[in-house]
Amino acid sequence: MSDELRVRGLTVAFRDDRPVLEDVSLDVPQGEVLALVGESGSGKSMTAMSVMRLLPDGARLSAEEIAFGDDDILGADERRMNAIRGGRISMLFQQPKRMLDPTATVGSQVAEPLRKYLGMNRRQAHARAVELLADVGIPEPERRVRAYAHQLSGGIAQRVMIAIALAAQPELLIADEPTTALDVTVEAQILQLIQAKKRQLGMSVLFISHDLGVVSSIADRIAVMYAGRIVEEGTVQQILSAPQHPYTQALIKCSLLEPQQDGRFYVIPGDVTTARTMTTGCRFMPRCPVTHALGIEGHCVGDEPALTGCGGEGHRSRCWATIERLVDA
Amino acid sequence: MSLLDDPRSHALDSTADAITTGARSRGWTRLATWPWSLRVGVALLGTVLLVLLLTPWLAPYDPAAQDLTNRLTAPGGEHVLGTDHLGRDVLSRLMHGGRFSVSVAALTLAISAVAGTLLGIVCARVRGAFDELVMRVADVLLAFPEMVVAMMLVAILGAGQGTLIVALVIAGWTPFARLARGLAIEINARDFVEAAECLGFSRRFIVLRHLLPNALGPLMAHASLRFGHKLITVGALSYLGLGVQPPDSDWGSMLAEGQPYMTRSPGLVVFPGLAIFVTALAVTLISQGIDVRRRRQG
């Protein structure tokens, strides 16, 4: 398929600091869902905003390639970017209620992209907005178009955001923790809705989440990020049933929420490595249980391992332990 | 559809219903949904403006006609609001003076508010040297009282209505620029602006569609506060001979002229004061009412 998102060697840094994203490469083929998983501060959202080219002031972006289909995102001028944003690539966010302008009605905000991208007039856009709201499962859409953000529940607001994001029928949806702020019951509904829309429009999804449980229900492939690096990637099957990287293993252990022998929940020791605390070797090394067990600290401190194929097709991990094992075998 | 139904939405329906039916109705039924402050304010200001508009036909006397045998008469009788120290009819002078006071105050306020807001938004956007320059100029202007700036300008440009307006605008744009700049910086950091950027909307669209509506409340509140202040400043400048020239009058100059006779004829001070008070109050009520109405809707 031609319309895929290709990111190669994406690096983002703030002034003199070590990069917050380093050499991130990923592909989202058309119609597929790639999940980016990791703790807060691992660079998931930064990756998304790089694809939108909407990084905060002071951020320096470099990459070998960022392209979506035949659009070169890295080289596009601001005018072209504005056509891509919302037109070809749309975004969903964590706090849907804060993403809606409190002074404008829901309907007018759904109508905005319709008028911009589909050239509708006010009346057509309003009528279409009602259809779109009905389409994302909002009851009584004729009345809801006149509501304001503060009159909506979180679930309804996220549905409105989905209607807005999909108004111009984009080819890629970037969903940045779209269900994190919602109740568990509503979360399932929103995930179902995203999945249904994905199938209906044939779009691809870059789904960002810290929750492996959520991701497993929606993604085709998973990329695990840690401290600005992709540390493991593979299909949902590969990642969940045969995780190679100790960080992935720890994440899965955390998300099970099963008390351990001592009755406590499992917690990854230490804090997430940030640009300030980074060392030369593997970024997970200070918190890694494997490095001590295997006695390969020397390796782990010295050099950062490369993302290396391990076992299954397209399954890659960035860990010396995995590489050692492959050498041994 | 039932699966996708949000159970929490139904609880909201009744409130949403009450609000939307109100906002959508037309004509007189719509008036009934206005907050009382808006209704009273519009009625007051409407009356004031109507009277001022019709003054040439309604005023009982020539405002400049002196009648030295009838000086400082009490309200009532032939002269409804009495006469001043030169025997001129106070009601007629109040009506004619109001035309000058209100129009100059409104005009300068409108120009200051629009220019200041635009400058503030541009500053918040470009930052850097331009922002620094504009804000330092504003600092300098704010350091002097409005009156001093105006007097200096009048000294340079000569007295007259045009000069008065220019002077009041130059002294008056600064608070709007500062307020708008602060609001713009704050609103630009809000999430819905980021969402609009992600939808590929241009900067101009975001300013018009998201920034201005969200900044309007505080700006309107400030503008309405400033209106009464402007009325008084216009009067004070006229009193100093920098605005309206005798025998023409405005509310501020009438206040000043009546001051020496306050103990004998309190009406000379009370009536122009009341006129300023009522007009400023009407504007404040309207802005407050609009704010209440906006908040009821969202």
Show the helix and strand layout.
The complex is a heterodimer of chains A (329) and B (298).
Chain A: E1 5-14, E2 21-28, E3 33-37, H1 44-52, E4 59-62, E5 65-68, E6 71-72, H2 78-84, E7 89-92, H3 106-117, H4 122-135, H5 141-144, H6 154-166, E8 172-176, H7 184-201, E9 204-209, H8 212-218, E10 221-226, E11 229-235, H9 236-241, H10 246-256, H11 289-294, H12 297-302, E12 308-309, E13 316-317, H13 320-328
Parallel strand pairs in A: 3-9, 3-10, 7-8, 8-9
Antiparallel strand pairs in A: 1-2, 1-4, 1-5, 5-6, 10-11, 11-13, 12-13
Helix pairs in contact in A: 3-4, 3-6, 4-6, 6-7
Chain B: H1 9-24, H2 27-31, H3 36-53, H4 55-58, H5 90-126, H6 128-143, H7 146-157, H8 161-188, H9 191-198, H10 203-239, H11 251-258, H12 267-297
Helix pairs in contact in B: 3-12, 5-6, 5-8, 5-10, 5-12, 6-8, 7-8, 8-10, 9-10, 10-11, 10-12, 11-12
Structure overview:
The complex is a heterodimer of chains A (329) and B (298). Chain A is 37% helix and 20% strand. In chain A, α3 (106-117) packs parallel to α6 and α6 (154-166) packs parallel to α7 (184-201). Chain A is built from 13 helices and 13 strands. In chain A, the strands form two sheets. An eight-stranded mixed sheet of chain A has the order 7-8-9-3-10-11-13-12, sandwiched between helices. The mean pLDDT of chain A is 87. The two termini of chain A are 36 Å apart. In chain A, β12 and β13 form a beta hairpin. Chain A has helices at residues 44-52, 78-84, 106-117, 122-135, 141-144, 154-166, 184-201, 212-218, 236-241, 246-256, 289-294, 297-302, 320-328, and strands at residues 5-14, 21-28, 33-37, 59-62, 65-68, 71-72, 89-92, 172-176, 204-209, 221-226, 229-235, 308-309, 316-317. Chain A is of the alpha/beta class. The longest helix of chain A has 18 residues, at 184-201. By secondary structure, chain B is mainly α. Chain B is 74% helix and 0% strand. Chain B has helices at 9-24, 27-31, 36-53, 55-58, 90-126, 128-143, 146-157, 161-188, 191-198, 203-239, 251-258, 267-297. The relative contact order of chain B is 0.14. Residues 1-25 of chain B have low confidence and may be disordered. The chains are: A alpha/beta (329), B mainly alpha (298). The interface between A and B is large, with 50 and 38 residues.
